[in-house]
Amino acid sequence: MKRYTEGNFEDEFAPHLGFTKKLIIEIPFEILSNQELSLNEKLMLGLDFSLKKKLGFNQMTNKKIGEFLNLHPNIVGNCRKNLLEKQYFIKKGRQYFLTDHYKTIHEAEINDTDKIENTDRRNIKLPIEIYSNKDLKTGEKLLWGEYNSMSKSIIEYFAKREYTAKRLSVSVESISNWTKALYEKGLLEEYKVISGYCIRRKIIITCSFDKK
User: Fold this and answer.
1) What is the pLDDT of residues 58-85, one digit of tens each?
2) Strands, E, within 127-174: which ranges?
3) pLDDT digits over 121-145, tens only?
4) CB 89 within 8 A of CB 48
5) Which CATH number is 6-109's, of 3.90.226.10, 1.10.10.10, 1.10.3720.10, 1.20.5.170?
6) End-to-end CA distance of the chain
7) Which domain of life is it from (predicted)?
8) Residue 11 pLDDT more than 90?
9) Distances from the Cα of 87 to the Cα of 27, 47, 101, 183, angstroms
């Protein structure tokens, strides 16, 4: 694997070279369902996870991450400080290295019953059209990724709100509000609720983005 230094990282992976448009942010299921992380911290750890797979580290400044994810640099700085203190990554110079701490925390958070029942190990993936979208809240971005992890703009996502809320470690009310917002913003191809005798479920299909 090519070695990157402080000198050549910014040059090779500058936005004008198209790197940002190619990057898909992948968020592991352990991070997505983590109960102690904020939504912004989950999104940022997803960025670190994705860059670790490509480069081994993340050397983007708080300002660049803020532009990348549409977050204020101060929010990025506070999140990074918290994540360092919680040992989710370590810092060497200007480089941030993701640790395996998120896996350890996940194992500690679930009890024996959950270990048997929780077989859903889907990671979610966010394209630039989602994670850089200025009109989306961070929770909406993560929820779109959750829906798309099953739907992939083709098949229906039909899990109950309670299940989806548990996957993201948020409230059921948040899932309802974010789903409505995603639909109103044109990011769900289909959203409907089917009601019948002893049954009520939602059907969701995410929108697709043209590949250039």
Assistant:
1) 999 999 999 999 999 999 999 999 999 9
2) none
3) 889 999 999 999 999 999 999 999 9
4) yes
5) 1.10.10.10
6) 27
7) Bacteria
8) no
9) 18, 16, 7, 37
Q: Token pair of 60, please?
A: 């983007």
Question: Given this structure, which CATH class describes domain 133-206?
Answer: mainly alpha
In the chain, what are the domain boundaries? 6-109, 133-206
Only one residue has tokens 């039909």, namely: 158
- Total length of the chain: 212
- The answer to whether the beta carbons of residues 84 and 91 sit under 8 Å apart is yes
For the CA atoms of the chain, what is the radius of gyration? 18
Element (DSSP H or E) covering residue 164: helix 161-168
Structure tokens at 54: 């490509």
**Interatomic CA distance for residues 110 and 115, integer angstroms:** 6
Report which DSSP code applies to 17: G
On whether the CB atoms of residues 43 and 80 are closer than 8 A, the answer is: no
Q: Tokens 């480069």, residue? A: 55
User: Nearest 5°: phi and psi at 191?
Assistant: -150, 110
Q: Which residue in the block uniquely carries the two structure tokens 């110079």?
A: 93
Can you list the alpha helix ranges (DSSP code H) found in 13-137? Answer: 19-22, 29-32, 39-54, 62-69, 73-85, 101-109, 112-117, 128-131
Two tokens, residue 53 = 């797979």
| Single-letter code of the amino acid located at 132 | S
